[in-house]
Amino acid sequence: MSTHIFNTQVKIKNLLFFCLLFFCGFIFAQKPCSYLPTKLANDNLIADLMQIKNDDFKTILNQPKKYEIQIIYTQVNHTENGLPELIQHQYQLNLKQYFYPASLVKLPLSAFALEKCNLLNIPSNASMITLANHHCQTEVSIDSSALNYKPTITNYVKRMMLISDNASYSRVYEFMGADAIKNRLLELEMKNTDILHRFDPGCSATDNLFFNPIVFLNEKGDTIYKQAASTSLIYQKYPYIKKIKGKAHYNARGKLIRKPKVFTKNNVMPLQEINDFLIALMYPEIIPEDKRLKLKETDYKMLLKAMSQYPRESDYPHYDGSKFEDSYKKYLLLGDYHDTIRTDSLRIFNVVGQSYGWLADCAYFVDHKNKIDYFLSAVIYVNSNQVLNDGKYEYKSIGFPFLSQLGRLIYDYEITRKRDYHGTFEKFKY
What pTM was estimated for this model as a whole? Predict the structure, then answer.
């Protein structure tokens, strides 16, 4: 065989290989939700912006697959009539690339719990007494973080949004039940999302499908609603997709298992779906009424305020600003920041996730002074030794700096990006 022919065949094979990579990327990428008027940009804007700041991103750009980075940047262009037009840019978005969402699931769960209160005509600030009748269930009748020590859906939601509190999540998960959660997710076209376990240690996959009896009391202490114990029916016969990660992991008893960790029965939430949920939450007026969250105006105000607050700004629940810094739950833009934010003009409405080496943040930015707003969601995996649950992750050295730099990169770009019209954002002032 001649060298010319051989080289030609190699070139053809290489071309086919790269075409296959492109085709697979196209297949595995997830498009914005159908009921959102989001246009998908056909460009490499995010990669191009990172390349300009190569010194900040060279570690990531040299090994993007290692860090399993996924980014969604959604521009908001306000029209003359005030309605936003959305343009989505993406980087390495891959529906098939599993990442553990951790606390990202707290945002839809918070909204669903408020919806359920409205449906049952239960005030979200009514006392919620959680009982127990199964292994791994916890009885709760007092919330020391509340003004009157009463556990309520309202206070649980605030705790989740302000400091990503896990116990609050578990209590709200028990109130909702996995089946109701799954059905609501499907109604909102979040078909690839599953929320099917507590954040309580020691609970098995089976334990997490048994739900506590719950009693709601009015201010006089009278019972206004009883919720019987229940068991999930959907997930008993659920077609789980196998998901594994790493080369070894520590189990719940602290024993090293020299096999990948199995995430098959863990929560899953693709970046696109939590990103779209946040958009629908912030701009319900742009989506069909039957796809909107069934929330009262007071629900929206409470939830959005808690999402945007720094922990120190909350009276009840109250948090020490020295322990919970302004950057505590604001990874994008502020993840590597260790000081008090000196301006009230910029507000970040977001939810984060941190576990097993993954860091994720889904955020809506509003700069009242510069009259700009946009959405930014990202996830990165920083676990070089590929051992899960050992606590040895590169959060501080790589994860937080990357998310912070990415946030600043997009913010600086947004400041200079030309617009025909600017939003007013009055509803996002708290």
Answer: 0.92
Q: Residue 4 and residue 390: Cα distance in Å, rounded?
A: 53
Q: Highest-confidence range of 14-28, 264-278, 327-341, by mean pLDDT?
A: 264-278
Tell me the C-alpha distance between 305 and 396, whole Å. Answer: 28
Residue 43's identity, in one-letter code, is D
Pairing of strands 256-257, 230-231: unpaired
Measured CA distances, 322 to 9, 327, 340, 354, 401 (Å) = 63, 11, 9, 20, 21
The answer to whether residue 112 sits within a structural domain is yes
pLDDT tens sequence across 187-218? 999 999 999 999 998 899 999 999 999 999 99
Total number of domains constituting the chain? 1
Ranges 42-51, 85-94, 126-135, 238-247: which has the least confidence: 238-247
Please, are residues 119 and 215 in contact by the beta-carbon 8 Å criterion?
no
What CATH code is carried by the domain that includes residue 312? 3.40.710.10
The C-alpha atoms of residue 284 and residue 366 are separated, in whole angstroms, by: 16
| Backbone φ, ψ for residue 230 (5° rounding) | -150, 170
4 within some domain:
no
Structural domain contains residue 3: no
- Does residue 8 lie within any of the structural domains? no
The C-alpha angle with vertex 156 and arms to 362 and 240, in degrees rounded to 5, equals: 60
Structural domain including 55 reads: 26-428
Q: Residues 148-166, buried b or exposed e (16+ Cβ, 10 A)? A: eebbbbbbbbbbbbbbbbb
CA distance 81 to 67: 42
Among candidate residues 428, 419, 426, the one with its CA nearest the CA of residue 85: 419
How many Cα atoms occupy the beta-carbon half-sphere of 223 within 13 Å? 7
Let me know: does 226 contact 215? Beta carbons within 8 Å: yes
| Exposed e or buried b per residue across 361-376, where buried means at least 16 C-beta atoms within 10 angstroms of its C-beta | bbbbbbbbeeebbbbb
Burial class (CB in 10 A: 0-12, 13-18, 19+), 174: buried
Is residue 348 helix, strand or coil?
strand
Statement: residue 240 has pLDDT above 90: no
Spatial contact of 181 and 112, defined as CB atoms under 8 Å apart: yes
